[in-house]
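Hey, can you fold this one?
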Amino acid sequence: MNLCLQLLFTLISLHAGVWGKSVCSWQDVLDHLNLTANRDKLTMTRPTRDWTTPTVVYLDVLVYAILSVSWANELLSWDPADFCGIHQVSVPRELLWKPDLFLYETMEKGEGTGSPFVLLKHDGTVVTDGNQKVMSMCAMDVHKFPFDTQKCTLSFSSVIHPDNEIQLVPASNSSRATQNALEIMLSQGEWEFINVTVHTDKLIFQELGSWDKVVYTITIRRAPLLHVLTFILPILFLLVLDLASFFMPDTRGDKLAFKVTVLLAMSVLLLILTDTLPCKPSQTPLIAVYVIVTFAFMLLSVLETILVAYLTERGATESAGTPQGHGAGGGTRDHHSEGLHLTSDEGNGKSVLRGCICEANGVHQQEALPLTGRPDPYEGSEGNPTTHLLRLILQELQRGVQRPTQEHGTSRHHHTMARSINTTFFLLYLLSISLFLILLFLNWVYW
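Sure. Predicted structure:
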């Protein structure tokens, strides 16, 4: 009898335990929090029981338009043990108060894919994630373009609430923010992501108070390969061609035409550069210095080629256009020719040297030169006519040799001057452009 009563009591207890188990839902939590009936209280004012207690807002920014914000709502909390272990519920965004965060560098706010719900935890913590595409302003420093590194800042602050009401605190430090950004990046395009640094700051306005501000500094570096292949190397190739043109023979102006063609190609690259760089950079870009200085060197090379061609052509003209009788003094004697011949005066038995001057009009003038002078040592005291004749012939031959030398002296001087100028300019050109390129490269990449 006692055994039957005990078994019956055990069965009744088991059924009572099963039937007495509570069933919980998220709606029970919302009803407990009175979210459906008292919405104005939770949306119109800052959720604190004491107005002097500041609301701490934790801000976390991930590159590629992800913004995570969390804060504590003192008016909403529950014990998870009373609701079957429910620790968090999702609530429509419009039911709760949200901090009025503002991005100072924003220019245009695009459409985002943020969730229409916020996450409400049992201790009153509200977490919201908003995916927003924001176009922000960034001060570009293109001094080292295309090897430049840019730093863009994103500054968040409250619009209305000062720091005694809302305290902004970064949820992640710099290293964690950088690691999170690197994990979600799939492609970086023209820019290479370096890191993210986070720090807090204050906005102080006289007679109004101070506001907390969280500043995220995003460091990115440009990928220079495309610009090097399409812009920097072509200019360097044109410069090498201009240097190689010094070894070209200057025939019929081919060297000058080649240099002018290279200079025109540089002008086309200058037009491309003006479309690439910003209109009003803070500093002169090094790539602009690179192009302008290279252009100036090529222009000087063209002017030097013109000078050398002028000197060469002038020397060639004087050499080809001067007749054989051109003297050193610049006078011409191409209207007559001179000659010497020996005749004998039969009257007195003496030999006479006659100089013949043949004018251009066919008139011959002769002058008799008696062969008298210094006595020949082989003939005693009397002068030898043959010796005098040979002496005069030798003097005539010397004058004939000196005339071509004087005629071509100016031509050789011009050619020598042109070669000297060309060699000196090439050495200075090569030395200057090499030194310039080395200093520019060091300043471009390392300094």
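Residues 385-445 form the longest helix (61 residues). Let me know if you want another pass with a different chain boundary.
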